[in-house]
What we know:
single chain; 504 residues; alpha/beta; seven-stranded mixed beta sheet; four-stranded antiparallel beta sheet; 47% helix
Amino acid sequence: MAAKAARGSGERATGVVFPADDEGRRSTGALGRAVVADALRQVDPVGAIGAEREATWRSGYLGPFRRLVEAGLGSPESALAVAHGGLDALHGRMRVVGPDGVERPLDELFAHAPERHPRTVEVAGTGTAERELSLPYRGTRLRGDALRRRLQTWATEGVLEPSAVDAIRLVQEHPEWLALDGHRVVVLGAGAEMGPLPSLLRWGATVVAVDLPRPELWARLLRTAREGAGRLIVPVQGDGGEPGGDDALARSAGADLLHDLPAVAAWLEGIETGGGRLVLGNYVYADGATNVRVSVAVDALTRRLQERRDDLALAFLATPTDVFAVPGEAVDHATAAYEGRSRTARLAGRPLRMVTGGRLLRRPYVPGSDPGVNDTLVPQQGPNYTLAKRLQRWRAAVARDAGLPVSFKVAPPTRTRSVVKNRALAAAYAGAHRFGVEVFEPATSNTLMAALLVHDLQTGNETLGHPWRDEAHAAVHGGLWRAPYEPRSALGLAALLGVGAARG
């Protein structure tokens, strides 16, 4: 049944929205508790009750989100039950409010044909396609043997999983893969710092860009496209872009996933590939509760395209600041690092642990665990961010189980604008190197992750038998999985030590 849009505090929301209670309030905490409880209910009913009864969700969400991972470790079926339960709960609870103010179930989002359809404009690059994989790193560009040595150093230091080294080296051996001939890579959140758009265009690929209609953003994307060697396919509203060149195009390009989703879906349904796949890449991000709204919108779009296209592939980047099951090899590496720490570190750590009741500088794992559980949830990021990212993990697992090609990669901690504007996170990142964690610059991260995307699309990226193994494969976690200390037990000290560098 349709209902009038409920009132809430602040501006009236339209598009994909949180459900309202009987008094018209749209509570993000109530949704988070309900979704986590529903995800746990089949395999961990006690955990489900605990999530439902967590009164201080903003600070108490860490345990329930860890439990979501632990509950799925027993079998692939358990992990998939958690994923299906979470997805069903989100799609069953979230709502959509149209311009008429009428609130409807999310599943009715595509019930009516869109009134407007974006036009398609293609922008061709003028550069020469790069035919060798290279990686910007600390003021230089690594290629060939220099890149191979850096990858091996990262593996030795525990900055990434050895399977990531194997994947990147395979791309090095097949530079003809870089152009992704035949594929069309949809980059949702085309302007994202962690997105693959700049690298793909440099390599000569065809990119379908979707982002908000913001002229300054599109002016930057169009410059990147012109300087590159690929093609950029752009959604355009109205009749803009024909005269006035790129300036006019920037003013009329873009689409709003929250409010114009049916039109975006119809537009993407009509994108033709060159015999390859339409790759739906999810790189969206927004602050606060809007992050959940836009993530749910993207997931609704994903389901729609799965129904309408048989050539779909999915791509995701996971945050390293979450809970992951990690292989025994990573546990052994971290255990050796903890037991091999210097005498100074041992002497300094003992009183800190005593004073804080064991909260600081703890062991990261029980020795010998396989898998281990790495808990790098950062309280400052909040439950909305965590739910939005967990939604992507659930979709990746369910889609892979259904036979869709999926590229899901854990990306390294990176100094993006969204991170460094948070003073606590910026300080922690500045001091992280003292605890065995390397924080990457955006250009290094997005190039590395684009190369891993190419690998997955070109090799098929078959499942490894359990969702946690698929998630851990070729992870670039910056050292968070293999560091000598449980990440959250070192975060405060890292921030304290890094506060001066962060201000600088």
